[in-house]
């Protein structure tokens, strides 16, 4: 499919093998996100959601660090009442990424600061280079944790380790992130792009509705009582088996036998 050129000039995008690859391309500023970049990201996620020929999205960053978080000049402008503010900058992107229904893979190298870390809490697969560091200095900026990180990080890391990140501002290393389940895999820097893309291509090749409903179930599960979840997934399982997607797959498998 033909993709529109991102308006910020600091986002690159391409689609191959049913994977939309979005590259943060502001390496001189460690890929700090501006309002225009956030808008490009929102638009691209919406485009990926609406097109059946895109099965997964991969987000990566150019240069030595994945993302330095929000551009501080934008924050200052918002505080002075002269900028768009978080509601018009990061907020639509955070909402979009947290509600994105297709598989989302993120490749992280170097520093992932602020939203560069919290967006990962809404990804399905995160691959980190061995030099990755996850940093959430919200309090040090006179702000508070965003993107649901005040709930999600304690749930994954435990309260004490999350407090060291969110309150003290201590970084989380790639190895610690892997042990905690924040990242799926840690690789050498040279292998990062290939490893992340391998996951994205594999996810994009899966049956579309089955993937979407499975991701939705995983996200809903934490909020549902177990008995309700069991009734819900059994009913959905039966419904899915009657659908064209499952029928075609099962018929093909039986035909091979």
TrEMBL record:
CDD domains: crotonase-like (cd06558)
Top-level taxonomic group: Bacteria
Main location group: other
Cellular compartments annotated: Peroxisome
InterPro entries named in the record: ClpP/crotonase-like_dom_sf, ECH/Chromodomain_protein, Enoyl-CoA_hydra/iso
Entries under Pfam families matching the protein: ECH_1
Keywords in alphabetical order: Isomerase, Peroxisome
Protein name, entry field: Enoyl-CoA hydratase
């Amino acid at each position: 499919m033909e993709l529109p050129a991102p308006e910020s000039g600091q986002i690159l995008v391409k689609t191959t093998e049913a994977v939309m690859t979005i590259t943060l391309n502001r390496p001189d500023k460690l890929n700090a996100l501006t309002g225009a970049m956030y808008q490009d990201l929102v638009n691209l996620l919406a485009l990926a959601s609406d097109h059946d020929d895109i099965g997964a999205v991969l987000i990566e960053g150019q240069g030595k660090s994945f993302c330095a978080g929000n551009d501080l000049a934008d924050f200052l402008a918002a505080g002075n009442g002269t900028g768009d503010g978080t509601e018009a900058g990061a907020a639509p992107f955070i909402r979009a990424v947290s509600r994105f229904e297709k598989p989302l893979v993120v490749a992280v190298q170097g520093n992932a600061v602020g939203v560069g870390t919290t967006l990962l809490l809404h990804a399905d697969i995160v691959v980190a280079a061995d030099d990755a560091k996850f940093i959430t200095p919200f309090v040090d900026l006179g702000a508070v944790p965003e993107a649901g990180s005040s709930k999600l990080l304690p749930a994954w890391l435990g309260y004490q380790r999350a407090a060291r990140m969110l309150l003290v501002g201590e970084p989380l290393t790639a190895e610690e992130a892997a042990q905690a389940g924040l990242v799926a895999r840690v690789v050498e820097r040279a292998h990062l792009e290939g490893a992340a893309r391998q996951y994205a291509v594999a996810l994009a090749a899966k049956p579309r509705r089955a993937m979407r409903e499975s991701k939705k179930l995983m996200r809903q599960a934490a909020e549902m009582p177990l008995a309700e979840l069991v009734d819900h997934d059994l009913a959905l399982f039966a419904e899915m088996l009657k659908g064209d997607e499952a029928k075609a797959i099962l018929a093909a498998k039986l035909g091979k036998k």
